[in-house]
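ingest -> validate -> predict -> emit
validate: passed (alphabet ok, no gaps, 105 aa)
predict: started
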Amino acid sequence: MFKHQDFLEQIRFLHPDVKTNRGMQNKVYEVLAVSSIKDLSGVEQIFTQEGTFRNSIMIELGRLEDPETIRTVARHINQRMKDEKLSIKQAANITRLIRFTGELI
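emit:
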């Protein structure tokens, strides 16, 4: 069972265009990530030039669930994106690997 079931009804109200449970869960993870890093400096690579966030990275960050861990990994991913010119897909994959291994790679 999805851990954040209580948020799903709110997400359904805010995003009626999202039809699947998986899509709803991803929206919850996005909200968790955005709320954890919205005022954090040093994560500009995770946002577009227009100031919107990169969905795939936010979903993976949100799956980390702990706000402090989300902030730590967001800074790490941001630095790697800047230094290594990672694509969004590469950054999301690295974030997923960090979640699975528990180590900053």
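The CA atoms of residues 57 and 92 lie 5 Å apart.
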